[in-house]
Amino acid sequence: MAPANPAPRRREGFALPAVLTVAGVVTLIFLVAITALASMTAEAGSARARVRFLQNALTAEANLSLLASTEPIRSSAIAVGAPRILDVLSGAEGNASSLDPAVIRLDGHPYSIELTGQVVLKVQDQAGLINIAALTEDQHTRLLQNLGVQNADIPVLRMRYFDYIDSDDLSRFDGAEQRDYLDTAPANRPLKTPSEWLSILGARKSVDPKKWRALRSNLVVDHTLLNSNINTATKETLQILFGASEEQSISAIDARSDLAFTSFSDFLAASGVSYTPDDERSYVFPSGRMIFTIQDTRSAWTYRGRLILTPGGLEQPFWIDQTELTEAPRRAVADTSNATRFPYAPR
Questions:
Q1: pTM of the full predicted structure?
Q2: CB atoms within 10 A of CB 347
């Protein structure tokens, strides 16, 4: 005879899946929390590295500004501790006792500065670069050829460039005005940056991206500066502005490293280039406008800006513009193998 109240039957296998489910959820929560914490830690580390780099970059910028505005500038360098013309004329001793002054070359040579880590500073006289706003037709043609533009497209891009920067809406032959653009339109003003040149109709499709990136650091836009400086010009500048071959540009750079050119004829003799200079332009003096780049050996940050000196007396007022801070995560940190120790003003 069966019992009146049989015991409830136990359901086998129910507790274990529930425990496993709860454990899985808890584990997932922990993994999400750990991942979030790791991400926050990485972001905090990146922020600290950025602040540290920017602090060093601004210190290096201040050191450069001090020397550039208080020390004499020669045709190719800042001569730290050299006699200044006004010192000599006034009979003041100043720094005239220094017979072998240290220099800060204005041709992009790297200088190392020990701050909180090693910082590399490069200074380039703007007159030693390719000023898009001051190119002749031949120079413009060589620039576009160097960028990989097909010969048939070169005159078209030149006309579109002029239509882009002029203030009217009249299209030149082979040019392009607002009705020819789709998503953008001509600025109808001078270019503000070299990269804006890529906004011209058809420009981005016509250039070789690798060649553009290789040449980008040699390009500037300045409608108030027409002069060039053969004593600080880069190899690419000598090739595009004066039609020098690679061998001729290297010969010129080697020659000026021993003794700065005092005339354009010195450059022609050293390089073998055949070029007729413009008598109204200066070719051997710096512009008083310096493009500087700062990197360090611990990060891929780059700080870039322009230092502009205002003519004055013993000390030159200055201002800094066109500053930018960029990061390229896959780029190697600054190379110090060829860097010279950055000189400081005599005490």
A1: 0.80
A2: 3
Q: According to the model, what pLDDT value does residue 50 have?
A: 87
Q: Torsions phi, psi of 123, nearest 5? A: -125, 130
Give every residue of the chain whose pLDDT is below 50, as ranges: 87-99, 347
List the one residue out of 59, 135, 5, 65 whose CA is nearest residue 307. 65
Determine the Cα angle at 270 with ends 265 and 274, to 5°. 60
Domain ranges across the chain? 47-127+289-341, 149-206
3-state secondary structure of 218: helix
Helix (H, G, I), strand (E, B) or coil at 122: strand
Distance CA 24, CA 41 (A): 25
Residue 294's CB is within 10 A of a number of other CB atoms, namely 26
The answer to whether the beta carbons of residues 138 and 243 sit under 8 Å apart is yes
What is the rounded CA–CA span in Å between residue 35 and residue 311? 56
Residue type at 196? E
Of 75, 64, 219, nearest to 140 (Cα)?
219
Helix then strand then coil, in percent of the chain rounded to 5, is 40, 15, 40
Token code pair at residue 291 = 């493009």
